[in-house]
Design goal:
The structure is a single chain. This protein is α/β, with parallel strands linked by helices. The protein has two domains: about 1-65; about 70-170, TIM Barrel (Alpha-Beta Barrel), CATH 3.20.20.70. About 40% of the residues lie in helices and about 15% in strands. It is built from seven helices and seven strands. Helix 6 links the parallel strand 5 and strand 6. It is globular and about 40 Å long.
Length: about 170
């Protein structure tokens, strides 16, 4: 997505009451990522939107972001989660959810619920397994994996508080 187009769409999402934005730009160089973080912070400065960075506690602190989102490997590698950041975790199993609870995560994304473009041959859990896991968790759970706008209501019916969407979000 072209930068100018991205920021215009993001402004529209802010007007539509966006709550969280996760910076998950794995393909950017470190220099470009830092520039991007600064642009996002400037745009969101006078809003209530929480800025979460994917995978880097150090960047969350350095740029005074609201939180960090950890992958399932980091879930097990980190002995303790930071207390002064929002901490989200990607979970794929009952055990992942239990560990996230033990370490006091603030929220989790659980999935993949459906097939995804990024992992077309990967396994997915479907809504039945998702519901079984989400309803047993004491943490707020977002559904992830192939989510589209029409999955929002379905996610609520299956124990989620919403969805996480990497691609389709920009089309809502």
């Amino acid at each position: 997505m072209q930068s100018e187009n991205f920021f215009q769409i993001l402004k529209n999402k802010i007007d539509q009451d966006l709550k969280f934005l996760q910076i998950r730009e794995k393909a950017l160089s470190e220099k470009d990522l830092i520039t991007f973080i600064k642009q996002i912070k400037r745009l969101l400065k006078r809003t209530n939107v929480k800025i979460i960075i994917n995978g880097s506690i150090d960047l969350a602190y350095k740029y005074e972001l609201d939180g960090v989102h950890l992958n399932s490997i980091q879930l097990y590698e980190l002995e303790n989660f930071p207390n002064d950041l929002l901490v989200g975790v990607s979970c794929h199993s009952k055990k992942d959810l239990e560990v996230a609870e033990e370490k006091n995560a603030d929220y989790v994304v659980l999935g993949p619920v459906k097939k995804t473009l990024s992992h077309p041959n990967g396994e997915f859990m479907g809504w039945n397994k998702f519901k079984n896991l989400a309803e047993k968790s004491n943490l707020p759970v977002y559904a992830i994996g192939g989510m589209k706008k029409n999955d929002i209501a379905l996610s609520f019916e299956n124990g989620a508080i919403g969805i996480a969407s990497q691609r389709d979000f920009w089309n809502f």
